TrEMBL record:
CDD domains reported in the protein's UniProt record: Thioesterase_II_repeat2
Name of the molecule in the record: HotDog domain-containing protein
Keywords attached to this entry: Hydrolase
Coiled coil: none
GO BP of this protein: acyl-CoA metabolic process; fatty acid catabolic process
GO CC annotation: peroxisomal matrix
Length: 166
């Protein structure tokens, strides 16, 4: 039993350890396709023992793209997410954002993450032929709350979030 614990907790050499990329900015880089559609530019981190990419990468990029659709006065106050299907690190992720709710104090965004797997490509991108496969790999619902100033009184009437008194 002690040998098993040693083997699991202590890699036999430094080549057995796969460290995540150190450049967070590059890892989070995205291409804006339109106002509600982004594509990942960097190959996501895939741990050596994992079947797919590191889930934290999808969580972080989903939150990041959702935040690009809200004004700076809003911060994330809740995120619910679900991993739906397997993924691959050889195909970019596509992030589609839907504006679910735009209130005066709360904004809600839905983020769906797809991978387009195509055997037919033009300029490195799928052509959209019928045999192409689109896989929904992840979905998230992200809520943003307007930043309140100290001493600000917020009045909520019957479940509405419209009344703000300063």
């Amino acid at each position: 039993m002690d040998k098993l614990v040693d083997r699991v907790s202590k890699p036999s050499s430094s080549s057995d350890v796969q460290l995540p990329p150190s450049d967070f900015g590059a890892l989070m880089s995205l291409e804006k396709i339109n106002a509600n559609h982004y594509r990942s530019l960097k190959t996501p981190f895939k741990p050596a023992v994992a079947r797919g990419v590191f889930g934290g990468h999808l969580l972080a990029q989903s939150l990041y793209v959702a935040s690009k659709t809200v004004p700076r006065l809003y911060i994330c106050n809740n995120m619910q997410a679900q991993f739906l299907n397997g993924n691959t690190d050889s195909v970019p992720f596509h992030y589609l954002i839907e504006m679910v709710r735009d209130g005066s104090r709360y904004l809600v965004r839905s983020v769906r993450v797809f991978q387009y797997i195509s055997s037919h490509k033009r300029n490195g991108r799928p052509c959209g032929r019928s045999e192409d496969k689109t896989t929904l790999v992840f979905t998230a619902l992200v809520s943003f709350k307007k930043i309140e100033e100290p001493g600000q009184i917020v009045i909520v009437k019957d479940g509405e979030d419209e009344g703000v008194e300063k």
